């Protein structure tokens, strides 16, 4: 952990609260009144207090054709999490913004029904009444029995922190795309299976009907057909048609473009399945033989059923559950992915951002970070490296490379500027209550400020008031973008923010109405709103802003692109259901369906889902979306202030600016990789910082525990410094004790100080009961050793005393330490027993940041050319050595034994750098012939 | 002895309180070996180490396998499997200059009564001889004649192609324990208490046959001969189980000097005690330089000067138990390894001893020995006291093995390799030098990768 450890530790929402180290209580007169919400268990940074649920969760909903929007499941599946939150209501909300049509049916000019492999849509929306904000990921699954063969679903990440959803949009989108892809893959598999069964049924039905018709023909010798016979013949014809249609559907579902699957390792099995299915398709494509061959070769277990002409009505049927719709294996995989997402985004935004910054910075130190960082993250790093390699190669603009490689520092800036803006507001409160925004903005962000831009940004708030009064505002969706559009969008990104662009952004933003849902990103067609609406009068802004201050629970609305309203859709289904049979769904209904859905279709008129509007617009929308978010984001913190009579906009511009810059730069970072397009082409999204998964909660807890115990150790034992010095300098520390739990606890605590070897295993053994061997000292740097009060133990102790020169021995039972002297300055800073840090996690971060600092020293020392090689031929080794010594002492400021620590780390760095395949061998055991001393309490 | 562990806080020097074993604390400023690497490949006692070239060595032991190692990196290069029983002798077979085949060969003899020739570059088993009646216990190569000899119950002469050239009759059931080459195409074989000198007759115009003839038997040792070395152009030395050290003229095979039991004549009481345990005085190994022969006698180390023909320095209890191998390093250090599992580094230091000066108590043991010598040779007393005296100073010890250290090998550039009964081989290195080498390599790699930027 590199950055701002203290702050982060406070902002992280702990899953379980650990017992902080209890300092003696302050006298009453010094105590400060507690944060008013503290009694509710909330920390001052928590925005959750307004929400009806306790923490973020994932909701899966379906737009059921029978009952309308309904919640299916939540992750975590714990009623405590969402509490009194109205899932039904929220499902209705999130499903109602899915205006993306997934069209199935007869498209004009096509003989057969056509499946569209529609892309998922991603929407961010907010419900200020409920205090909930959500990232909503819509997807459609195929179901043979459903209307139009499609079942619309959505997965929503629901959080009380709008800021979080917005800032983490890329990451959320990438992760949910993975889950969705997995679900859809399973669904395609299941759907193909369904179709096969259905085909068999139909074939059987045809045979039966055929026989019946023949019988009737024979029985009927009058020379004309009875009405019954005609009916039979019609029925037969419709079965024939249905067979052809289903075969076509099967072909379509199997020809799902393979490229979509590349890079999605979740669905690696898919390719084989497809191959299988291809083979099967070859057999089934011949209608005459298919029944027989299938019956005997493929699925002998399945007996075809006769399909009645008038089957049960659609709404009488029980629709398949999500699990039935999808192959079970894929379903569980999806659930796993979703709970991974839930873990990944747990906690405060500040924490998430910091850990992202942290990871990005760690990536930059890829040579030295193995020493004290976790392996999980390192592995991720390796994977990422591989993934990013091709995209890097494809770049043709070298200058952007550096930007792309370190996307996070910009985020860092945003945090910084955010902070500074808050501070500046405080100053303003004292000094001026004017409305000279320009000046203020210049104060906060003097370098990058552009008056024109800020005007535009302010404008958009104004614009918003026009459309208030409606119920839903969709400020942006991230819809499917075609592969084709990418190049265009790239081109557009090289153009700096033009007024035109800003306008389109401005249009997209609506403010304040009385309703409760706001959707915070824009969709392309909104840009059609005339520019004339744009007004840029500061006075107007003031009004607008004060209005914003009042309308807290207000709604933002976006009219133009609403999906089929729930009512409408239901109407449609009702209309169709009475006469519906399974087979006729395709034929009869398709026309009406087409009619209904004709409006949205134009955006998805072909399989790739090419967006009809110009891609660069869309691109810039994306920026606007960031900006909007920033504006929204500022409001929670400004509310308190504005309630005291300060115009909220004073806060806004700087925030806007800051985060706009962020979004701009972050866009720039991605602009030259084709990967950025955030829809289903999810492979490339892996590159974004989020893909390095944060450490799992268990290891998080582990860290916290370790930190806490280390803190205890430091306070409890006066000889903590030489012990830690032993660990840092690579001298094995043996913790000797009778009580296993105690020893394990201390070993875990101290393990945070142990430098790793080249990334194999952490050189720590928690508990050993056999005598130690020389190999152990080569392999392990921290060992918990059992002390048994029996003669058997003599061997153990004998070995220990024999190898005493390689070890420091901490005797837990007698509270003694035997180890070399330490007189350096480093460890006292690392492990100050009078430290004010009370929490384990905070202390852990403190240690990590200190150690990172140390690593950088070791890195400098290792890679300074002149320190290790003679400057000219005549230079003796002694001179080189003295140069090293003076570098360590004067440049790096190391005293006494600290030198040895850096030297040891440098050796590890050298070994790591030179190792061809990391983790293959253990480094040599290095030691010094130095006397040891015995420390007692 | 574990007092410090129990809270006493004393160094384990308490160990030495009752025995005169010299110990050195944890502070060993002159000990260069500050880095070690444990090499594990064997499954049984590792008894032999042999150097192949500047950077490779081979190890062999009771598990019957031979392993070729890189002494620089500790990397295991080859594992040679072929013997079914423990290996009893190993020797390198240098290739002839004329020979186009430059591959390094080694010969190994095993208790399975075979000798195998290996190619150390490829790991290939070149040839195998399995026509032995008995276990071959020693091997020697006569490079001048391009033949090699195997010594078991009889002595056989082989050429490079592994044709048996000639052999002696059955010598003894105990077999030949040591074999060295001496000038005039002769070899000395130690068979029990006897030293037998054989002459090798190479084919001439007269006869095409090789022949080996027994020339002389030397019967001066009273007990089994354990060690036999060629000291210089003039003499060879043999040592026996009861501590006899005899120096022989290498040309006429006569006894030049003999030290019989001289290590034990301190007082009668001790003599009796020591006779009860002949292991304490048996001579296991010799090493030599221009002036001195260093003998590992029981637990002690003795330095015998060839010119003055007397012991000039000694450490009576250099180790806790028998010293198995000693070697003189080019840097004038003496290294010994022992059954107690430790390796010790000694330095022979000159000391101008003034007669007037009171003898420090620490040297009593040595001077006690000197007195013994005085009694034996009174005339030399004066000379000795004026002359430079020497002492063996312990400058460091290497502790790593948990069982007896069988042998070690010194590489000028890479440090020391020790092998032990705990199945391990340990590579001891000079940490500072290794660190420098690693830096050098690091910058080489950086340069190769093009990552090295030189700034002004």
TrEMBL record, chain A:
Superkingdom of the source species: Eukaryota
Biased composition (Low complexity): 681-698
UniProt key word RNA-binding: no
UniProt keyword annotations, A-Z: Autophagy, Cytoplasm, Guanine-nucleotide releasing factor
Coiled coil regions, renumbered to chain: none
Disordered: annotated span: 273-292, 558-618, 681-705
Domain UDENN FLCN/SMCR8-type: from-to ranges: 48-910
Main location per the UniProt record: cytoplasm
Feature: compositional bias, Polar residues: 593-602
Annotated Pfam families: Folliculin (PF11704)
Compartments (UniProt record): Cytoplasm
Similarity section: Belongs to the SMCR8 family.
Protein name: Smith-Magenis syndrome chromosomal region candidate gene 8 protein
Naturally occurring in which organism (per UniProt): Ceratotherium simum simum (Southern white rhinoceros)
This protein's encoding gene: LOC101393646
UniProtKB/TrEMBL annotation, chain B:
Pfam families: Beta-prop_WDR41
WD repeat positions: 39-79, 80-128, 316-356
Biased composition (Gly residues): 1-11
Highest taxon of source: Eukaryota
Residue numbers spanned by region Disordered: 1-24
Keywords: Repeat, WD repeat
Sections of the chain in a coiled coil: none
Key word Repeat present: yes
SUPFAM superfamilies per record: WD40 repeat-like
Keyword check for Transmembrane: no
Matching PANTHER family: WD REPEAT-CONTAINING PROTEIN 41, WDR41-RELATED
Protein name as it appears in the record: WD repeat-containing protein 41
Higher taxonomy: Eukaryota, Metazoa, Chordata, Craniata, Vertebrata
Gene from which the chain derives: LOC101387595
